[in-house]
Amino acid sequence: MTKSLNLNTEPTPEWPREEARDQGGVATARGRTLLLSLMFCVGFMGLSARAIQIGLFRPVDEAATAARADAIPPSKRADIVDRNGQLLATSLVAHSLYADPKRIWDPVETAKALRTVFPELNEAELIGKLSSKSRFEWLKRRLSPKQKQAVWALAQPGLEFVEESDRVYPMGRLAGHVIGSMQPGGKGINGMERAMNDRLMTGDGVTPVKLSIDSRIQYLVETELAREASSQRAIGGAGIIMDVRTGEVIASASWPFMDPNKPETNSPNEQNNRVTNSRYEMGSTFKVFTVAIGLEDKVITPDSRFDARAPMQIGEETIHDFHGQNKMLSVVEILSHSSNIGTVRIARSVGAQRVKEFFNRIGLMEAAGGELAESARPILPQRWSDIAAATASFGHGIAVSPMAVTAAYGAISNGGNYVRPTFLARGDGAAVSSRQVLSSQTSTTIVDLMRKVVTEGTGRRADALGYLVAGKTGTGEKAGPNGYDANRRVSSFAGVFPANEPRYSVLILLDEPKGSAQTGGVATAGMTAAPSVARIVERAAPLLGIAPTRTLALADVPQSDSAQGAVAPQSNPRSQNATLEAQ
Amino acid sequence: MNIQRSHIFGFIGLVGFAFALYWAKAEAQSARERVVALQNEVDKERRDVRTLEAEVAWMERPDRLEATARQKMGLVPLSAANTASLETLDEVAPVAPTATAPVTPPAEAPLP
Fold it and tell me: What is the interface pTM, i.e. ipTM, of the complex?
């Protein structure tokens, strides 16, 4: 059935429309257009405002941060230099190696490759680190440039470098105990790195900390100390030179030496600074102090005589003489022959409390390590009885650091003023605080007596060629579980030079020397420490600007075509002597 | 709205002021970045100087200097035996009389 198409269109009520009827569509569209325009306007206004804010008002520093981040500024930790400006410690940039384990393809292969560069690393540990789930594992800190290049050449993914500040000690082991060492990227472990940590970090990073050490003299002392301690098969040793006027420590050596560049490799024995942190019963070097009390109190004169004919009994203790003279001894002889009996008689004549009081005044009853944290307090008698004072008068029953003895020798020889030792250089003309412990007259007398020990007594081998050394030997026995052990000795020589106008105090100590072929197996101070002091003074005095007192040059002058003139080192402006260094 | 000439000048002035401000800001930023770049350079130079100073100190180790002076130059440590003051220098090392004729100044040679 088909439906026919009606072409005859008849008007209907709906069509054609007479006029368009607005049912709200136009108004809606216009509203939407307006809303859209408004939104665009607001959007563009917002963007414009932001553009203006960025273009005109943003601080300029923000833009700079990205550029700045790619350069590590130099370390803020200041350098350490010696008294002449010689560099002892500085901070450099080092590269450290880390791994991003997620980017490691094959931990085993990478570990094996790394061990070709670092054979000391454990392969199993490396594989463990390279397989971990973290994104950061330290592999090796402070690489050398060669090691870094070798790791680059491995071309292993996931191995990255980071720049770190590294503390470097270009002089190696020289003055290692004084300078100290650092934790990686951390604080000082010991020495001045620890003691001066705040000062090193709070400065501008440019002004160095200047030590009192003279690296040339330090080298001489270390060389001689190592030589003597090795030949004597000692377990340790200490060597010190101190300026008696200012308290500045010119050299401070503790053997065995410590390498500050590798703090982790130093044994506890090497780390121990015997100069300030070990305490010894020093023995006869203390006799000088006892005599000084007697002279100061005018209880004795150099010519006073004391009975040393027989051992002396105090309570249960019997005092013997090692170098027994068995006769009446003058004070000069008591020191030159190192008589225990004579010294005890002087101590008894001044009284136990006076001995204690004087020892306190010259710094023997306090830690004497200067700025160093490794500064042991002395071991003192619990009660200063007559027997305690008697044994302390010749250096037994009281244990102090070698530095304390050196400072005390400075006090009794510089005119009688105790100056605390310091490892920091004092500026020219800087005020030095001191306390008077002796009159200058007593000081002069005691130096004369010490000079006689070197010219006539047990310290003859300390007499340096061309320089006047004054001092005293000391051979103490170390205390063990069964009392004093005659086989474990501490041999030392403490003194000053030049004796006509003391400027430096010097001490060499050997811890348990065993004797050597050169000394005929003898390990006493007169045979071991005393000659070391002579050799040190002979080499150090010219560098310290001290003119020789004998006209040796007139007697025997090496004549050589290659002799070359040289002026004295510039470290000591007081030195006006032209010097000649010849073949 | 009737736009007057003063409005146009005001608008142009405002745009000009904004541009000047932007220009100054851009210059300041550029200067700042130059300062940062220079500071980076200074830092790098300081690091390099420190490295060189450490290397110099390493070369100036007393043990190395002593060995070098002894081996290369035949020098020995200073001692009292070879030390003299200026006053005694003539006695210690008198000037040897010269056997040769007095040195006459050489004839002037033409400059190359």
Answer: 0.73
